[in-house]
Amino acid sequence: QVQLVESGGGLVQPGGSLRLSCLFSGATFSMFTMSWYRQVPGKERELVAAITNTGGTINYADSVKGRFTISRDNAKSTVFLQMNSLKPEDTAVYYCKAVRTIGRGSYWGQGTQVTVAS
Known about the structure:
Elements: E1 3-7, E2 10-12, E3 18-25, E4 32-39, E5 46-51, E6 58-60, E7 68-73, E8 78-83, E9 92-100, E10 106-108, E11 112-116
Parallel strand pairs: 2-11
Antiparallel strand pairs: 1-3, 3-8, 4-5, 4-9, 5-6, 7-8, 9-10, 9-11
């Protein structure tokens, strides 16, 4: 079955950068739209960025536009989230999500904590 494993989270100072990775396995990666979400305690999970299976369409939440970049490497079955100019309000657990482009099926990773603090 599909498995997603996030990595790259941690503690960073405001203004710093982190690069999250999500390794996909169990199916054909190029047949999935990939997204990054984040969630803080007491709030709903929110979409941060999404990229279609070919990388042809990318969307970002307004709060991260110009600071975050989503990308994918279909040969390595990995999606990335480059996060620059981090702010304390970016603190959250970040989750990777895979959605089939044909048929039904969506999958979540276990999440990785990002903490932005001085």
